[in-house]
Design a protein that fits this description.
Elements lengths: L7 H5 L6 H8 L27 H10 L24 E5 L2 E4 L4 E4 L14 H11 L10 H13 L5 E5 L2 H16 L3 E5 L17 H4 L10 H4 L2 E4 L4 H10 L4 E6 L15 H11 L3 E5 L11 H6 L5 E5 L9 E5 L1 H4 L18 H14 L4 H23 L4 E5 L2 E5 L8 H4 L4 H13 L2 E2 L8 E2 L6 H18 L1
Parallel strand pairs: 3-13, 5-6, 5-7, 7-8, 8-9
Antiparallel strand pairs: 1-2, 2-3, 4-10, 9-10, 11-12, 12-14
Helix pairs in contact: 2-3, 4-13, 5-13, 9-10, 14-17, 16-17
The structure holds pyridoxal-5'-phosphate.
Pyridoxal-5'-phosphate binds next to helix 6.
C-alpha cells in the first residue's frame, strides 16, 4: 500500500502525498537524546538478531498525523518502553506477524481475548457463517440467549446479563446500576485498578494511565470523581476506614479480583473474602471487574477460582472471542433494575450483535473442553518459573507469579502487594528488556504495568523459544 493520496485537510497542514511524505516525517521517529523515553539504552544482544522494522516505522510516522499519538489506544504507542511500536499485519495461533515480515510469539493476545489463540479456525469458520446472515440486527437474536446461558451457567454471581460493546461500557453501566439499586453515590475502587476510561473511574487508575504516568485526566469534572474513594489493593484496613468515614453513603466496592492493570498482582488470602464481608455488613454491593480475568483465571472467572461470589460482575475480552464486546450481570433482583425491566437506563446500537455473540459462543465452547485450564496453567507456570530463573541467573532482581493463563513480573526484589509496591519496578531496565525480547521475536506488553497472557495455542516449543530469548535478553540487560 502506498500513500498516493492526500486529503485537502492534510495538504493544508503541509503534509504531502506519496512516499516523500513518509520521508519528510521519518526523522520524527529516530530516537533522539532529547527524548528520554526514546533514548532508552539499546540492548546489547548476546546473539545478533536481524530485526528490520522499517515499514512499521513508516506506517507509524504516517499515523502521527492521522490519530492522536498515532494510535487508537494509548499503550500501543510504546511510549513507556520507547522505540517504535510494531505495526501488525496478521495474527494466527500464538503468533503475530508485523508489516516487515517479522514473526513474534505473542503474550499480549489482543490484550486478553485471544485465549484460544488468535484467529482460531473454529471461531473464524463460525464467523464466516454468521456473516452471511448480516453483521448487525438491532433486534433480538437467539445467539444472545445462547451466550447469556453460557455466561450464567459458568459465572457464579451471574443470574442475568446485559451485553454491551466494551469493558468500559460494562463498568460505567454497572456503576450506574450500583447507585440505582442502593440509592447511594459513593464508590470504592483500588489504586492501580483499571475499570475502563469513564470519568468516575479515572482516579488513581492503572493500565495506560499508570503506564504513561498521567495524573487523573483533565476533562474529568471534580464533581464526578468526588464520589470515587480509593484504597490500596490487598489492604482491608483502608476499606474498613472508608466505610467508617462514610456511613450509609457507599454504594459499593469495585475490584479487579486479580489485578492485571498495575502489572500482575494476585489477591492475598482473605482479601476478597474480607471485601465480601465488609460490603454485606455495610449494605453495599461488591462488584468483581472480570473484564480481564473472566474465563481466563478459570472457566467461571476469578470468583469461581477463589470461591467468593460478588453481587455483580463485569466482563469483556474473552467473551467476545476477539470482537468488541462487554457485559455486566449479577443477582436477578439487581439486574431487574435495568431498562426496560426497570428504570435504570442503558442501551446500545450494536449491543448483542450476531458477530460478537458468535465469536463469544465458539470461544467458550472451546474453553469448556476438558483439560483446557490444566493446559493453560501448566504452560504458564513453566513460562513464569522460567522467566524468574533466567532473571536470577542473570543477576536481575525480579518478583513474579501467575494464575492460570495470566502472568507477570516486576523488575524489583518485591514483594509487590499493591500499586505503590509495583512502582519499585525498574522501568528503564524493563524498556531494554522489552526491546531485547522484540529483537528475539517475543512480543510482550509494552509496559511494566500490564499482565501477560498465554493461550491454548502456545506450544511447549513456543515456551522453550521464549525462555531462550529471556535468558539471552536478561543477560544482555543485566
Ligand atoms: C479490568 C478491566 N476493566 C475494564 C477494562 C476496559 O475494557 P475495554 O478496553 O474493553 O473498554 C479493561 C481493559 O483492559 C480491564 O482490564
Amino acid at each position: 500500500m502506498d500513500w498516493a493520496w492526500a486529503h485537502p485537510k492534510l495538504v493544508a497542514r503541509g503534509v504531502a502525498a506519496g512516499s516523500g511524505w513518509k520521508l519528510l516525517n521519518a526523522h520524527r521517529l529516530s530516537p533522539s537524546s532529547a527524548d528520554p523515553v526514546l533514548s532508552a539504552t539499546p540492548s546489547a544482544p548476546v546473539s545478533t538478531p536481524v530485526f528490520n522494522t522499517t515499514r512499521s516505522q513508516e506506517i507509524f510516522a504516517a499515523a502521527q498525523h492521522l490519530m492522536p499519538g498515532g494510535v487508537s489506544s494509548p499503550v500501543r504507542a510504546f511510549r513507556s518502553v520507547g522505540g517504535h511500536p510494531i505495526v501488525f499485519d496478521r495474527v494466527s495461533g500464538a503468533y503475530a506477524w508485523d508489516v516487515d515480515g517479522n514473526r513474534y510469539i505473542d503474550y499480549v493476545g489482543s490484550w486478553g481475548p485471544a485465549i484460544c489463540g488468535h484467529a482460531h479456525p473454529d471461531v473464524i469458520a463460525a464467523l464466516h457463517q454468521a456473516l452471511e446472515k448480516g453483521t448487525s440486527f438491532g433486534a433480538p437474536c437467539e445467539l444472545e440467549n445462547q451466550l447469556a446461558t453460557m455466561v450464567i451457567e459458568a459465572v457464579p454471581s451471574v443470574e442475568m446479563v446485559r451485553f454491551v460493546n466494551s469493558g468500559t461500557e460494562a463498568c460505567m453501566s454497572v456503576l450506574r446500576l450500583m447507585r440505582a439499586f442502593t440509592g447511594r453515590e459513593k464508590l470504592i475502587k483500588f489504586e492501580g485498578c483499571y475499570h475502563g476510561h469513564a470519568d468516575m473511574f479515572l482516579v488513581k487508575a492503572g493500565s495506560g494511565v499508570a503506564t504513561l504516568g498521567l495524573p487523573d485526566s483533565p476533562g474529568v469534572p471534580r464533581s464526578v470523581t468526588a464520589n470515587t474513594l480509593t484504597a490500596p489493593y490487598n489492604c482491608l484496613e483502608s476499606v474498613k476506614e472508608l466505610f467508617a468515614a462514610n456511613p450509609g453513603e457507599i454504594a459499593g466496592v469495585i475490584v479487579e479480583p486479580v489485578v492485571g492493570n498495575a502489572g500482575f498482582i494476585p489477591p492475598e488470602p482473605g482479601f476478597l473474602e474480607g471485601l465480601r464481608e465488609l460490603t454485606r455488613e455495610h449494605g453495599a454491593l461488591l462488584v468483581f471487574d472480570e473484564v480481564m480475568t473472566g474465563f481466563r483465571i478459570s472457566y467461571g472467572g476469578a470468583q469461581a477460582k477463589f470461591g467468593v461470589t460478588p453481587d455483580l460482575t463485569t466482563m469483556g475480552k474473552v467473551i467476545g472471542g476477539g470482537l468488541p464486546v462487554g457485559a455486566y450481570g449479577g443477582r436477578a433482583d439487581i439486574m431487574a433494575m435495568v431498562a426496560p425491566a426497570g428504570p435504570m437506563y442503558q442501551a446500545g446500537t450494536l449491543s448483542g450483535n450476531p458477530l460478537a455473540m458468535t465469536a463469544g459462543i465458539k470461544t467458550l465452547e472451546l474453553l469448556k473442553q476438558p483439560g483446557t485450564y490444566e493446559r493453560l496453567e501448566a504452560i504458564t507456570r513453566r513460562l513464569s518459573d522460567g522467566i524468574q530463573e533466567a532473571a536470577m541467573n542473570a543477576g536481575v532482581p525480579i518478583t513474579g507469579s501467575h494464575i492460570s493463563a495470566m502472568f507477570g513480573f516486576f523488575l524489583c526484589p518485591g514483594p509487590v502487594r499493591n500499586f505503590e509496591d509495583a512502582k519499585a519496578t525498574d522501568s528503564q531496565r524493563f524498556s531494554r528488556l522489552h526491546r531485547a525480547m522484540l529483537e528475539r521475536g517475543v512480543y510482550l506488553a509494552p509496559s511494566s504495568y500490564e499482565a501477560g497472557f498465554t493461550s491454548l495455542a502456545h506450544s511447549d516449543a513456543d515456551i522453550d523459544d521464549t525462555l531462550m530469548a529471556f535468558r539471552e535478553a536478561l543477560m544482555a540487560i543485566a
